[in-house]
Design a protein that fits this description.
Shape: globular
Strand content: 5-15%
Number of domains: 2
Radius of gyration: 21 Å
Mean pLDDT: 87
Largest sheet: 5 strands, mixed
Bound molecules: zinc ion
Strand order of the largest sheet: 1-3-2-7-6
Helix content: 55-70%
Number of strands: 7
Length: 391
Amino acid sequence: MASQQARQFLDRMHENVWEGMDLTPRPPSAADDAEAERIIEDLLRRQAALVSSEELERLREGLYENEQRLRGMTVSKYENARTMQSLHKLADSLERAGRIAGWRVPERPLLGTLPTGRVNVITLLVPGTGEHLVLFESEFSGFTYLAAKAVAEVLPFRRTPDGGAAFELEPAKVRERLERHPESARRFGELVAAYLETGVPYNAPQYMQDRVRNTWAQMLCDSVQLFALGHEYGHILKGHLGRRRPAVWLGGPDLADPEELAWNNQEEIEADAQGLTLSIAAGQSRGHDVPIGFLGADFYFTMTHVIERAINVLRHGHENTSAEAGTHPPSVLRRMILRHVLSRHSTPQIEAAIGLGENMEQAVEMLWHDLRPRLLAAHRAGLRPLGQWQD
Ligand SMILES: [Zn+2]
């Protein structure tokens, strides 16, 4: 259990950061209600074939009761109760998978969110203690879900004889679908633009999605988040100490300068490998197969790479992300190493998983190709990303 001291530290930091960035937390809205209902009804649809109608009814009641309870919970005004619950469920799955694999699972760090200006997760130290604070970018889960949904929109799929669906990520097929449905690329662009310009991905125009695509998008989103948190568990499991660096930007008048843990490249690579193993195992306990588990990790980097380039184009008018021209940006390098690590275990399933990641990269490049000129035009018209985004 996280200490009271850690919670108070996070509360004060929330106030400082939100105020310092001149941002106001998004108040609960009708969109949240619709989102909750969508999640519940989707889960029930997936269970419908597996349980009796009485059991399904009990499940429905339980889920809506839980939703009511979440609303009644007093989480800080800077945290959304449903997001917190979902972070803890991710942690439950990862810790269970770790224990089954025989690892010494650490005590759960304090989990939370913060507008960190980076589409990822950071680890801070609670001053005066060795306690870890693992913070997701405030809209990380919303962005991940909507990005997975937007990508699912551009992928063709075919029905399989067993009543399921197989997605076809071959570049030629994706290109063909994009030509027939240019609105699917536009949606992805609207999402990235809304996130960078307002900090809130849900400000992008919303749209309905068919059930097959949406189920797949949710699995992908789940896998991304398991990997993101699994990576942080990876650092802890590997006993990485990191380097303490001041995170002055998080401090404020009533808060001593907080410290962030910065990891070196070797530690990042080890945490990626450990996080991948952990997140794939955790995903399997949630009914996901190995390829989608791997795709979550691979897509995490693909998504980060797009955001990094988008911030640069919108802010500076060009996409150079690295100070040293010609070197790979970290997200691309980490994705390359991840595929390389996995390719050492050469099984048909793993080859399929890597192929999936490579095809997904190409599909997202097609979306980027469509988005880049739009961002450049917006930059020339004077539009800039929010100051919070770090390039
Ligand atoms: Zn790391």
